[in-house]
Amino acid sequence: MKNKKALIAILAAIVVIVAALLIWQPWKKAETPATPAGEGAVKVGVSMPTKDLQRWNQDGENMEKLLKEAGYEVELQFASNDVATQLAQVETMIDNGCKVVVIAAIEGSSLGQALDKAAEKGVKVIAYDRLLMDNEHVDYYATFDNYKVGTVQGTYVKDTLKLDEAEGPFTFEFTAGDPGDNNAGFFFNGAMDVLKPYIDSGKVVVKSGQTEFSAVATPSWKSETAQKRAEDILAANYSDGSKIDAWVCSNDSTALGVTNALEANYDVAGLGWPIITGQDCDKTNVKNMIAGKQSMSVFKDTRTLAAQVVKMVGQILKGEKVDVNDEKTYNNNKKVVPSFLCEPVFGDAGNYKTLLIDSGYYTEEDLK
Ligand code: BGC
Asked: Is residue 49 part of a domain?
């Protein structure tokens, strides 16, 4: 009798526990809703390097818009190209309860303190466009295929001058990006890998003798710095009226500096413009392409990158598998960071209408 009662009590307890478990469903992962809206929405931090360059304004705006549309609360900051400001801004984002921070670094290896703090507080970090270096707490990286940007530039120059068939010699100069930006080396190496064989064979001559990244780099990617260096090179090597066939620039802000230097200190009317490469399809540079000053740029549709990052943020917050397509290229000196690489495409005066206007990136008005 006693045993029977005890058995019933145990069975009843089991039924209660099972019923409670069925209601509670603890095996279902705590999920952040895909569209957490309104009060208490999940916060995401977006840290951009500067408002000075068109592209980062666009990146910031796109990210903010798409994240808000997905229902997140957004803390967007621009750091005036000042490393200490960016560090403080990212730390504040973490203190303010952001669950994911998306960072386009001014200087790749200077945010370690903030990344350690993120890891301590369980905040996930996505490196945006530029890799965060020398720290293991970088969860993902989303960018364009930076090496490919360089090969697109190098191949454009090679094909336009028909370097394989033509006799030469041709005269080139190079201008690269910021040594503190991990991308800069990828761009330069991509272009150099295409063009170096012609330098080695003597078909291409670099009169300044500056062919190493360290010699051609442009701190902070500043147009003025690129312009000053170009002016010095022109004065030292081309004041005899000799021709330059190509000036290989890693991006549009440096191309702009070189273009300005050539316009004022080189006989463009008599010798014609050298081939000038660029990257970003900034408005000023597209206008220069239309005017025949800059030859090409590489279009990196910031809408695509922003959309990809917003997708990754959602996947992280929902505990889903995060979309990456490269798990070998981007070693930040501590780990290989799982990356998603978007495709860069070539742009010039011939295709800019389809590429930039028909796609809604710019209006006709923007380019007048
Ligand atoms: C970006 C380029 C940009 C450059 C200067 C690089 O990290 O990838 O698109 O032109 O920074 O802002």
From this structure: yes
Q: Which residues contact 23 (CB under 8 A, 6 or more apart)?
A: none
**Could you tell me the CATH number of the domain that includes residue 104?**
3.40.50.2300
Does a structural domain hold residue 123? yes
Residue 329 lies in a domain: yes
CA 348 to chain centroid: 20
The Å distance, Cα 220 to ligand 1 centre, comes to 10
Q: Do the Cβ atoms of 247 and 274 come closer than 8 Å?
A: yes
Residues with CB under 6 A from ligand 1: 53, 55, 129-130, 177, 181, 183, 221, 251, 253, 279-280, 300
Residues 227 and 258 both lie in one domain: yes
Going from the Cα of 5 to the center of ligand 1, the distance in angstroms, rounded, reads 76
Residue type, 278: G
> pLDDT (tens digit, 0 to 9) for every residue of the chain, 368 residues total?
556 776 677 776 676 666 655 656 554 443 344 444 445 799 999 999 999 998 899 999 999 999 999 999 999 999 999 999 999 999 999 999 999 999 999 999 999 999 999 999 999 999 999 999 999 999 999 999 999 999 999 999 999 999 999 999 999 999 999 999 999 999 999 999 999 999 999 999 999 999 999 999 999 999 999 999 999 999 999 999 999 999 999 999 999 999 999 999 999 999 999 999 999 999 999 999 999 999 999 999 999 999 999 999 999 999 999 999 999 999 999 999 999 999 999 999 999 999 999 999 999 999 99
Question: Residue 288 falls within a domain, yes or no?
Answer: yes
Same domain, 305 and 291: no
* Run of H or E including 275: strand 275-276
Q: Among 146, 221, 224, 256, say which to mutate for ligand 1: greatest number of ligand atoms within 8 Å of CB.
A: 221
223 near 261, Cβ under 8 Å? no
DSSP 256: H
Residues 134, 176, single domain; the answer is no
How many domains in the chain?
A: 2
User: Where in the sequence is the domain holding 256, given as residue range(s)?
Assistant: 146-299
